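4.2 Preliminary Data

To establish feasibility before requesting continued support, the project team ran the inverse folding procedure on a target of 344 residues. The structure was first converted into the token representation described in Section 3, and no sequence information of any kind was made available to the design step. The complete token record follows.
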């Protein structure tokens, strides 16, 4: 009898020993302890055993059963732990690895130039203003001393939307808006960066381009103020050695009017291909605000005077960064734009 128990016990422990994984272990458990298992079957033979031997038999079977249960539990615990370890290992992350690079956008060269100009003029007490790009004939021309049929309108080939509305050809349109809109009729000091539109399209002209306008109106504003301001502006943008040249010109809204050239910053005025061997680069229109403009927009020209200038931001950005085709500024090609990442 003892031998039978001992035999089953040994066989059982061997089976447990040999179970390679949790499934095998479970199979062994069913085979030994299940309803039709060997230990269960052994228990069932109890009734065939003489009465006095039964306690001893029962105890031996129980001992074997407990050992089997405990061996299975130990092994099960071992395999479960192995599985957990395997899972942890496979999910392990190296927190010291460098992260994948996030692509950063870069500031558009035009925005760089605009921000630089805004910072400079705000530091001198100017307001930064804006106006609509879809403008009326009234503000774009009439209130700037350019009535219907004025020949100077030909200087700016315009996109008309209706007979009264057009895409503004110049940020000067905001001059009239500010003057007229200023209820106190007090001093004005503003710059207006913004998009402008003309019917032209080649390597140096785009149908959409950007200007920055400046308007200063106060008592006793003179040409000296204009000249001093432009000197500060141009030296700041293009370098301390930049020199200015004022050539007489014509704009209906300023009198006198000037085209302002800057000394070529590439050759320092000696003459090169950038300045077409002249040593100078044409950059701005400027002048003393025409008394008619002040009058038409509610200011008394006997009391107030002013200066204004306007410059193409695209040209300025092109000179500053050595860009040769204006269209590059509007094509949004990242290969072009990302170069300016490294310029700060
Ligand atoms: N608006 C003019 C242009 O676009 C430039 C300008 C501005 C001239 C202000 C004089 C005063 O050509």
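Position-by-position output of the design step:
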């Amino acid at each position: 009898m003892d031998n039978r128990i001992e035999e089953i016990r040994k066989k059982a422990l061997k089976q447990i020993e040999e179970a390679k994984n949790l499934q095998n272990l479970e199979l062994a458990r069913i085979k030994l302890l299940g309803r039709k298992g060997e230990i269960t079957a052994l228990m069932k033979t109890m009734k065939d055993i003489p009465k006095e031997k039964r306690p001893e038999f029962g105890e031996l079977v129980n001992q074997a059963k407990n050992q089997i249960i405990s061996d299975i539990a130990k092994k099960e615990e071992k395999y479960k732990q192995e599985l957990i370890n395997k899972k942890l290992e496979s999910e392990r992350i190296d927190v010291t690895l460098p992260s994948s690079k996030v692509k950063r956008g870069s500031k558009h060269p035009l925005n760089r130039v605009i921000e630089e100009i805004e910072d400079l003029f705000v530091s001198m007490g100017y307001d930064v203003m804006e106006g609509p790009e879809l403008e009326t004939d009234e503000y774009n021309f009439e209130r700037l001393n350019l009535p219907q049929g004025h020949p100077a309108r030909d200087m700016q080939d315009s996109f008309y939307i209706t007979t009264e509305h057009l895409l503004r050809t110049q940020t000067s349109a905001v001059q009239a808006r500010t003057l007229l809109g200023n209820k106190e009729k007090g001093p004005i000091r503003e710059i207006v960066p913004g998009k402008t539109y003309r019917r032209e399209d080649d390597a140096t002209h785009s149908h959409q381009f950007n200007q920055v306008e400046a308007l200063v109106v106060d008592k006793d504003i003179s040409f000296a103020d204009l000249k001093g301001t432009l000197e500060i502006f141009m030296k700041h943008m293009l370098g301390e050695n930049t020199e200015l040249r004022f050539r007489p010109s014509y704009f209906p809204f300023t009198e006198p009017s000037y085209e302002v050239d800057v000394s070529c910053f590439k050759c320092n005025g000696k003459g090169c291909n950038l300045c077409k061997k002249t040593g100078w680069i044409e950059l701005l229109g400027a002048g003393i605000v025409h008394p008619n403009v002040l009058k038409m927009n509610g200011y008394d020209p006997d009391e107030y005077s002013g200066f204004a200038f306007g410059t193409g931001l695209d040209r300025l950005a092109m000179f500053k960064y050595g860009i040769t085709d204006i269209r590059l500024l509007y094509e949004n090609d990242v290969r072009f734009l990302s170069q300016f990442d490294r310029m700060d």
